[in-house]
Target: DUF676 domain-containing protein
Amino acid sequence: MATPSMIHARCAYSPRICNRNNKSSSQQAPVASSSSSSSSSSSSASNSNFSLSSGINIGQRHQSLNAHAMSTVTHGNSISSIGNLKNDPDHLLVLVHGILASTGDWTYAEAELKRRLGKNYLIYVSSSNTYTKTFTGIGGAGKRLADEVLQVVKKTKSLKRISFLSHSLGGLFARYAIAVLYSPDTYSRDQPGDLANNMTEYFQETNFSKGGLIAGLEPINFITLATPHLGVRGKNQLPFLLGVPILEKLAAPIAPFFVGKTGSQLFLTDGKPDKPPLLLRMASDCDDGKFLSALGAFRCRIIYANVSYDHMVGWRTSSIRRETQLSKPSRQSLDGYKHVVDVEYCSPVPSDGPKFSPKAVKAKEAAQNAPSTHSTVEYHEIVEDEMIRGLQLLGWKKVDVSFHTAFWPFFAHNNIHVKNEWLHNAGVGVIAHVADSLKQQEASSVLSASL
Model:
């Protein structure tokens, strides 16, 4: 049984990044920071008892600071060149690509982030999960990413902070990796031995009121672009199936034949019937890892979601929302950020966390062994709600993106991170928004360090 833990999350926002619709009181303050703590517990999946309890305390403080941030850049195959003594980058930004992709997907974003952020950043494009390696399962890919990040950190002694920017499936790889790399406060990047041999201390009972470290560094931003946080099972979660029930029913058993273990995990059918699917476990702290504590250690969590025209990942799963929480999106871009239409600040929502009830066990067994429209819908609705309950224990900044006016709107999934500078350049405003969010949080980090 996993031990109780306290989760600490805080997030600061830039005056330039505002919510045009002013949906809630938390959106009215352009520069705000919130901290939250939650106590959590989860029990062994084999008993079908899967829960996490929490209480949330939120505080706000206003701040103003203009910081000049500078950065450097590297590719996944050039670790040995990291750490220029003259530049001494202290903030590691890890870029993680999605399914069947490679480091080339980040060519534009990498160059633009380098230009905008400067030499204080070491921008590292992960190369450990290229192409078909993305089929081997979220856990395996997450561990490879964690090992890769750890090697970068060990070779660059000047690093003090770490952030992640991930696209699509890469966001789930990154969520798993940070749980592997997470420590309450005690892990040192110079600690000898294999990473796997150091895991035991990561999962001891600890007070997380001070957050924690990722690979021995202070975690700042965790950002995802069109990531299926809730999986791809359910109506319009995998949009190219057009919401047709029979296609959505057939997709789950067929997916593993095309995308391997990753497919069953995305469709929530992995593992035995009495064991929660991996994505549900990743919405909590459990025996597999401190997934929620690792996310909570970051100062800010930002999720960008395409509201339409994304053929791979639906709006609901990429924005961690229930169907009832979706409303007609704005069609007007925010000033200076074309196709970014809305920003919503979501405070932590207290709950007793995710569970895997006997009803869910039966629904999963039916979805695995005798799939029907009724059984698959019932199972998905149960698990989706529990995943949301877990992830909402932390605060999120949710950014909606709409390419309805773009020349090629159906390229939304690739536009959002500008996979190709010529075909997908409609997303340059999104990358600009990401860069400014990173700069704002860098300024907040400098302020905190000076206090």
Q: What stands out?
A: Confidence is low (pLDDT under 50) at residues 1-49, 51-73, 77-84, 186-210.
